[in-house]
Design a protein that fits this description.
heterodimer; A: alpha+beta; 2 domains; 5-stranded mixed sheet; 27% helix; globular; B: mainly alpha; 14 helices
């Protein structure tokens, strides 16, 4: 695989491929998939791609970009993660979330980690997402990160590294579930020969975690999903999660606070709400405390949370822990709270507030990725290898002006996987992986697989769906240690024939399970019906008929 | 109304319902087999075919039945009335015999559906043609509900549909998805009844026992046994206004007792209670079907004169 033209990669770096090893041979465990794709061929793949598009559109599995609903492009080639690789990811993600939970609890409490100078205090207090309003809000079961999405990339050595944490409103999990169903609907052949970990249990796990987070003393908590509304990019996902959890999807205007209790307006009057899985940003959540012009939020909701009558999930102020400027300190955070080495390494990141590091980075901007610390969706990212000199100069000026606002990372050659491209061919495209973790207070559960995002443009390293990225179904192979169930003994059930009214009556099929069917038409009656000549009917030869002959 | 027409109406109701329920079940069962390959395919196939009462053409074939092969067997042929093609063909044949008594283009719709199905469907991506079949059957159901005169004929269609639905829900629960596929089985049972979301809105734990309780006893879910029994009872009571009370007595007793047993069942039924109720429902569907035939469709036997 040569470096494609226009690539974001540094020359000479060869990314890891998920399907083929360096010699071009198929990696172990990928053979049945490669064979199934070869059997389909380019035309077969293109035909299936059309079916997929029709299916996604008809099902309304979309995200909204610039006001237009679009289906999230799902590639037909799944991404495979081995059972052993998955164990590492699972352990690493869970470890990170456990540590970040303790970190948040500390920051919004005693601040021990700051006193111990593991992290500079200025870094925290200068974070746009450190909300003093959240100080003293005690989550009922101690959980602030009910749901997390941790973005992983695989470097040229094949090592999974954490690129960023999403602890506010990580989105994309609905596509994980829908991708699996869509793939098995459209190309069932590729599943042959594989035993996969299922993804369907996610909504139940999320609901269990939200119920576990309910305020103390509520016997039968009411959980709702709070959406900004139908114009939000991820509205499909909000509706999906509400539906699959069997809870109400509410907008801010459906809720109100009275006497420190959040209630929702229903046809039977108002009903109390105990757990709010909110998918709107902190800034919009409560006009009393945050943006006063927010029309999406619920005035008084934060006071209700502080009073302990409602749980807001994810917690308010979580953004301080996924601030990109805090990210370089996460390994230290893991060591500090857990006394363990991080299972998943970070990507090297330069703290641009440090004059030495800044001096190292600025002349090498063409080999760096520069990201705004509080951005998301791939907006504002400058990929040095692709930027023009003018763009690099502009980036340098911005960094000089506001070093706290930016981080720089060496360009990581994201791993590639064969992806369906124009003409039905398969070509390598770069991808990342966002596993989702759910914390119910007892343990951190990681959904097997996660969302694989793929940069559909050749050579591009930007996988965000808002920047032309697609997704892949992600398969975690089952290690097979679960014993397969014993085969069923075929069971023959013959019902008691019971009363009959005619010997000709069909009682089912003799074998299998009896069923009531309509009595068969007596064959003699059928024969005689057929024999009757029908005047004028097509094919009926009736010499006596003059129909059609008499002029009218 | 002619007994012969009433009989055809009754069986149209049954076979349209059977085709719909079988198709929905096949779509979901197939998807489960594709995604969760932990189970021996033959077991997965037998788990569906047994309760549906379908005998594969070659008994040996079962051992190597792939998901695609299973689709072929369940789509089946016109001769086996338990298969999809069999029930569509039977519904269409009944519609043909009473074409003049049916509204609008009902026969034409069923005929077109039958022809398409007979021409064969792709078993490689069966989800697509099977879902369009569901759409077409929904159109037929729509014509019945929107266009049929509110007379005896409609009552026979509705009674047939209610009894078949009762029977199909029994069969769906006999498959034991939950026991065979502990991860996704319970959700598959619900999806096969179109009931995943209604279930989740009223219950929390998605376990096999909860699903069974829902499909047997839920008072609002349209495919629960209780709802089907209520619909059957309503149809019989309406019918009683057209005919003499003696004609409906056995029928009304059968569906009425079943409805009462389901409606007034224990609030927290044990698995044994549910098993008993399912057994009762199965028996009642059989007895009621026979009672309809005995009361309304009795025809002179075919008499063949001989020298």
């Amino acid at each position: 695989m040569d470096r494609p033209r226009g690539s974001d990669l540094i020359a000479g770096v060869r990314p890891w491929d998920e399907m083929y090893d360096e010699a071009g041979a198929v990696r172990s465990g990928r053979e049945p998939l490669v064979e199934a794709l070869a059997a389909l061929g380019p035309d077969g793949l293109l035909a299936r791609a059309r079916l997929r598009d029709a299916h996604l559109s008809a099902q309304g599995i979309t995200f909204t970009l610039s006001g237009r609903e679009r289906p999230l492009p799902m590639d037909l080639v799944p991404r495979i993660v081995d059972a052993v690789e998955w164990q590492v990811i699972e352990a690493g993600v869970a470890q990170r979330i456990r540590a970040l939970e303790m970190f948040l609890d500390d920051l919004y409490g005693a601040g021990q980690i700051l006193d111990d100078q593991v992290i500079p205090r200025r870094l925290i207090t200068s974070s746009a997402h450190f909300h003093r309003e959240a100080h003293g809000v005690r989550p009922a079961n101690g959980v602030r990160i009910h749901v997390a999405g941790v973005d992983l990339v695989r470097d040229e050595e094949g090592t999974f590294r954490v690129l960023e944490d999403n602890l506010r409103c990580p989105s994309g999990v609905s596509y994980v579930l829908e991708n699996r169903r869509t793939l098995s609907h459209v190309v069932p052949e590729v599943f042959t020969g594989y035993r996969l970990r299922g993804v369907e249990e996610y909504p139940a796990r999320l609901l269990a975690a939200l119920l576990a987070a309910a305020p103390v003393g509520v016997a039968d908590p009411t959980v709702v999903v709070l959406t900004p509304g139908v114009h939000n990019a991820a509205h499909f996902e909000h509706a999906f999660l509400a539906r699959r959890m069997g809870v109400e999807l509410v907008e801010g205007r459906d809720l109100f606070c009275r006497d420190g209790v959040v209630r929702m307006r229903t046809t039977r009057g108002s009903e109390p709400v105990h757990v709010i899985y909110r998918r709107i940003d902190d800034d919009y959540l409560d006009p009393v405390h945050f943006r006063p012009d927010s029309v999406l939020g619920v005035p008084g909701i934060l006071n209700a949370a502080r009073a302990g009558s409602v749980t807001i999930a994810n917690g308010v102020g979580n953004g301080v822990a996924d601030d990109k400027a805090v990210y370089p300190y996460v390994p230290a955070i893991v060591r500090y709270y857990l006394g363990e080495e991080p299972v998943l390494p970070n990507v090297t990141t330069y703290d641009l507030r440090d004059p030495d590091e800044r001096a190292h980075v600025l002349p090498r901007l063409d080999q760096m990725v520069v990201k705004p610390v509080d951005g998301s969706g791939g907006y504002g990212i400058v990929v040095g290898s692709r930027a023009s000199d003018a763009e690099l100069a502009a980036a340098a000026a911005e960094i000089e002006a506001d070093p706290r606002g930016w981080i720089a990372q060496p360009i990581v050659p994201l791993s590639t996987s064969p992806t369906l491209v124009e003409g039905g061919a398969l070509a390598p495209r770069h991808l990342d992986l966002r596993p989702f973790a759910v914390n119910d207070g007892e343990r951190v559960w990681v959904l097997p697989g996660g969302l694989t995002r793929v940069a559909l443009t050749e050579g591009s390293l930007v996988v965000n769906s808002s920047q032309g990225g697609g997704s892949k179904d992600t398969w975690v192979l089952d290690s097979g240690d679960g014993e397969p169930l014993p085969p069923l003994e075929p069971e023959l059930v013959v019902d008691d024939p019971g009363p009959t009214f005619s010997a000709a009556q069909g009682r089912g099929n003799g074998e299998g399970r009896a069923r009531r069917d309509q009595p068969a038409v007596h064959s003699e009656r059928m024969r005689q019906q057929e024999e009757q000549q029908q005047q004028g009917a097509p094919g009926a030869a009736d010499p006596g008929s003059r129909r059609g002959v008499v002029p009218c | 109304m002619l007994s012969r027409i009433a009989e055809a109406m009754f069986w149209i109701g049954r076979y349209v319902e059977r085709a719909e329920a079988t198709t929905r079940l096949l779509v979901e069962h197939h998807q489960l087999l594709v995604e969760d390959t932990r189970l021996n395919p033959a077991v997965g196939a037998e788990a569906l075919l047994g309760p549906l009462g379908i005998v594969p053409p070659e008994p040996d074939e079962l051992a190597v039945l792939s998901p695609a092969g299973l689709v072929r067997v369940v789509v089946g042929d016109s001769a086996d009335l338990s298969t999809i093609l069999g029930s569509v063909a039977a519904a269409r044949e009944n519609a043909r015999t009473i074409r003049e008594a049916l509204p609008g283009d009902m026969f034409e719709r069923m005929n077109a559906t039958h022809l398409r199905l007979q021409a064969g469907i792709s078993t490689v991506i069966p989800g697509i043609p099977l879902r369009s079949l569901l759409d077409e059957l929904a159109v037929v159901a729509g014509i019945i509900e929107w266009q049929m005169p509110r007379d005896e004929g409609l009552v026979f269609v509705r009674l047939g549909a209610a009894l078949e639905r009762l029977d199909m829900t029994c069969r769906l629960l006999d498959i034991d998805h939950d026991g065979l596929w502990p991860q996704a089985g319970a959700a598959t049972t619900l999806r096969a009844a179109g009931g995943l979301n209604p279930f989740l809105r009223t219950q929390r734990a998605l376990t096999g026992d909860q699903v069974e309780g829902f499909l047997v006893l839920d008072p609002t879910f349209p495919r629960s046994m209780l709802q089907s029994a209520m619909r059957a009872e309503r149809a019989v009571r309406t019918m009683a206004t057209y005919v003499s009370p003696q004609q409906t007595s056995t029928l009304l007793r059968t569906v009425g007792i079943l409805r009462a047993e389901l409606e007034f069942a224990s609030v927290n039924p044990t698995p044994a209670d549910l098993a008993l109720l399912r057994e009762r429902a199965r028996d009642a569907a059989f007895v009621a079907s026979d009672a309809v035939a005995a009361a309304f469709f009795r025809q002179a036997g075919t008499i063949v004169w001989s020298h």
